[in-house]
Amino acid sequence: MKATIGLDIGGTKILGVLYGESGEELAREKKKTKASEGADGVIKQIEKVLDALLSVEDIELRGIGAGIPGIVSAKGEVKFSPNLPLQNFDLRKKLMEKYGVPSAVGNDVNVAMYGEYKHLQRPDLKNVLGLFVGTGVGGAIIVNGDLYVGQGGAGEFGHLVVQSDGAFCGCGGRGCLEAYASKKAIQNFILAQVKRGRETLLKSDVSDFGAVLKSSAIADAYERGDTVTIEAVDRAVDALGVAMGSLINLFNPQSIILGGGVMAAMGRQLEPKLYERTALNSMPGLMETVKISFSELGDDAGAYGAYQLIEHELEAM
Amino acid sequence: MKATIGLDIGGTKILGVLYGESGEELAREKKKTKASEGADGVIKQIEKVLDALLSVEDIELRGIGAGIPGIVSAKGEVKFSPNLPLQNFDLRKKLMEKYGVPSAVGNDVNVAMYGEYKHLQRPDLKNVLGLFVGTGVGGAIIVNGDLYVGQGGAGEFGHLVVQSDGAFCGCGGRGCLEAYASKKAIQNFILAQVKRGRETLLKSDVSDFGAVLKSSAIADAYERGDTVTIEAVDRAVDALGVAMGSLINLFNPQSIILGGGVMAAMGRQLEPKLYERTALNSMPGLMETVKISFSELGDDAGAYGAYQLIEHELEAM
To answer: Is B140 part of the contact surface with chain A (CB cutoff 8 Å)?
Structure first.
């Protein structure tokens, strides 16, 4: 049976899924990334995942797609990754040589949101944006049904500046969306309030140095009326509304898909306020025709998107 | 001889140019728009321009392209124009029926910057942005060599929000790029300073109610060290740098073309500061590979872009 693999290579885990010809899942395998063991260690883990999937009987591998956190060139070379020991590493070539099939590599958020787009199965929606709000903020641009990557790094919605000379961002810039709306920004805001002596249900969560606050914990505190949490989330929603308004003015898309942990945990709850803020920032007449929806694939989005990425390349061959 | 017409339909003037098969100019015609005479009056003027061009001997008309200020649907229907008495007006259909040839209609700034892009004759540059800074601010998005319009209204770079809750904008929003960087914003800023009793070389220019300040006058006062003008222009450049940084983070384009009256008059002068501000707002590694250039067609960009727009459709047929 013909089959294709989608790989979601994260900083801590690698998920591989083997898909059949109709997109049905045939097998899945998960391994630790072992980022501390260098490039060779990571590659060994990737190969273990692939080899496990390829042990399924009677399959003929057609191609491998992969999503990876970091800057990936339009040709599939990993230029730089903040969480993986891969730099100027041609992962696409490596996979092609080792497994002898066409391969494709993209940025993890680009790929995951492309997966969410393909999952919609709405070929009538050609121009779509995917906005990902999780530990960081990212996105994907779909133009005429295809993932647009520019020179490879496009779709960095987290670094759309919403407030010039605003909050400092990890990228070295100021006022980026990510500095307000990411889970990390929410966490930092709450932590700053704790340091000022304010009370919050999330006091111990945010004070645990090194740990990343859970989206579900934020959602829970928000729902229970925790003032500090509400302030942090409202600040995030304000920035998201500004960014979404701008994105509508720039792309005039047919649809925006909202994904990532924060949206999964509290997107529906934040919807009315988010729409209101977006409307304030988009041009008259442009927002009404934009369908806003939520992602549905959860943790499988990355692997599914990687599968769709290589499927798209196979079709074009 | 086979020929194609490009029309630049402005609020005050209509420019039509007849192009031969190699893009050479065969004839041109300019008429007043007569916007005050309603839709019929404007159409009559458009037809006068077209009929004059069609009186050239021995030509066989292949198609008509047009750029028009306002919101144009992806199908070429004028949804709304702030300066023309055309609303929900299917100009494309009108032209096709009257002249019996394929026609295309787009937003004037989209079309003009597409013209600048085609004028580069650089097929290796596939993903390019055109940023137009004139009385207003607009732009064009080129994806894979084609003009991207989304549902028709894409490329509204003037309504990229650079400062949430910032300066009020004509669109009803706040903090839009246009509210800082357009000639109108520069004029308003200088006028506000005059009202506060400050001295400026442009005092009489900005105080003449209803008149639009000339880009050349701004450039002149800036060069002569006029403090108020320098403040207004620096504020514009700061906002442009924020916007260009964001645009690079979103699109990771190969090139940005800067056009419009303000850029024509003082782009070269502002270049160092603009680049410096853009670098502060774009992600590390993304700006280095973006070629920034200036538009070259001046007042002919609209007609030339309209010609290229219909040529592109004719090729695809």
So the answer is: no
